[in-house]
Amino acid sequence: MKKLLALLLAAVMVFALCACGGSPAPAASKAPAEGDAQPAPEGETYELNFYHIFAGVGHEQKWIEKAIEEVKEKTDGHLIINCIPDGTMGGEDELIPQVFSGSLDMSLSGPSVWGTNGGIDEIGWSELPYIVTNYSEMNALGEILPELTNKQLEAKGVDLYCLGAMSQGIRCLLTIDGREVNTMADCKGLKIRVPSSDVYMSTVEAWGCAPTPMSSSQVITSLANGTIDGFESDPASITARGQQESFKYYIETNHIASLNLLMINKTNLEKLPEEYQQVLKDVFKQICIDQCVDRVTANEEEVEVIKAAGVEVVSLSPEALQEFIDADIAYQQSWIAQYGVEDIVAEAQAYVEANAK
Question: Which of 93, 139, 230, 287 is the most exposed place for a label (fewest CB within 10 A)?
Fold first, then answer.
C-alpha cells in the first residue's frame, strides 16, 4: 500500500513540474481591434431572400444574377441570395413593407415607392423632372445616389441600407397619330396617361397636358378608344408590354430618370459576419454601376425595336427641350424646398457635373 501511494505521489509531482515549466502554454488569441472585420464562422452558411417585381428575363434581373453569383463565389458559397422576380411573391405594396419590417431581406423599387411606404417621401427627389437630362448625367447620378440615400436614411433612423441604384432608363413622351409634339405648345390639352403620382401628374401638367392617371395595363385599350392621346414611359417598359404598336411618335423629352433603389433591411444585413457584409456591399455597388452603363446600349436597342414598329422618333431642338425644362423647374424647386433636401440635391448635382462623361 505504501509503495502504491509513493508511485501516485511521484506522478503528481511530475505533472506539476510539466505544468509549471516543462513547455509553454498556448498563446492567448489576439482580440480583434475595434473596426476589424469579424471572420465568418467556419462552415456557416447564410441566406438572404430578395423578391422584386421586375421581369425575370429583364435587364435588371440579368445583372442581379451576376451579383448573386459573384457574392456566392467571394464567400466560398457561404452567402446565398434567393432571388424571385416577376412579382411572384407580391407587388410593391406587399414586398416593400416586408423589407421595412425585416420579414423580407431585400427588394428593388423606385425611390418614391420606398418613400411612400416608409413615411420618408424626401428620398424621392431623384425622380423629380429634369434632375438630369441625359444618360451620361443619369449614370453619374446612379453612382452617387446610394451614398446620398443612405445619408438620408441614417438621419431619419430608418432600418434600411441602399446597396445600389439600377437604371430603368429615361422616360419620354409618346403620342398617337395626329398628335406630334415638336414644341411645348403642341402639348396643350393632350390627355396623357401617367402613374398615380403627384410628381408625374405635375410634370406633364406643367407642359399644358391633361394628366390621366391609370394602370399601365390600360394604356393600349385607352389609346385605341381615344380615352388618352398618349403616355410617358421608358423604352424597355414599352417593349416589355408590347405597347410599341399603339402609338406613333416617340418624343425625346427625357423628363424623368428612372433609377430604382436596391435596398436591404439594415438589421438583417448586420446579422451577417462583417466580411460578408462588405462583400455584399462591394459587389452590388459595382454591379449596379455596370448595369446603369449597360442600360444605355440596351435602351438604344429597345428604341430600334420601337422604330421598327413604325414609330417616329422626334428629337427636340435644344430650344424646344429647354421650354419643357423651364416649365417644370418651378415644381421641381417647390418640391425640394417642401422636403428640405436642398443640400442633398446640390451635392448630387455637383457630383453629376464633375463626373458625367
Answer: 93
* Residue numbers in the chain where pLDDT is lower than 70: 1-41
d(C-alpha 239, C-alpha 11), whole Å: 86
Q: Where are the alpha helices (DSSP H) in 241-317?
A: 266-270, 274-308
List C-alpha distances in Å: 99 to 161, 281, 333.
Answer: 10, 17, 31
Burial of 177 (0-12, 13-18, 19+ CB in 10 A): exposed
Element containing residue 13 per DSSP (H, E): helix 2-17
Q: How confident is the model at residue 43, as a pLDDT?
A: 75
Q: What is the pLDDT of residue 40?
A: 62
pLDDT at 7: 42
SS3 of residue 72 by DSSP: helix
Dihedrals phi, psi of 280, to nearest 5 degrees = -60, -45
pLDDT of residue 22: 33
User: CA angle, corner 106, sides to 100 and 109, nearest 5?
Assistant: 80
Strand partners, 210: 191
| R_g of the chain computed on alpha carbons | 28
pTM, entire model: 0.85
Residue 97 burial by CB count (10 A; 0-12/13-18/19+): exposed, middle or buried? middle
Grid coordinates of 281: 456591399
pLDDT tens, position by position, 104-128: 999 999 999 999 889 999 999 999 9
Q: Pull the grid cell for residue 242.
A: 408590347
How many H-runs (helices) and E-runs (strands) does the chain carry?
Answer: 12, 9
Question: What is the Cα–Cα distance from 201 to 223, expressed in whole angstroms?
Answer: 18
Amino acid (1-letter code) at residue 104: L
The pLDDT of residue 37 is: 42
Query: d(Cα 24, Cα 170) in Å, to the nearest integer?
Result: 69
- pLDDT recorded at residue 34: 40
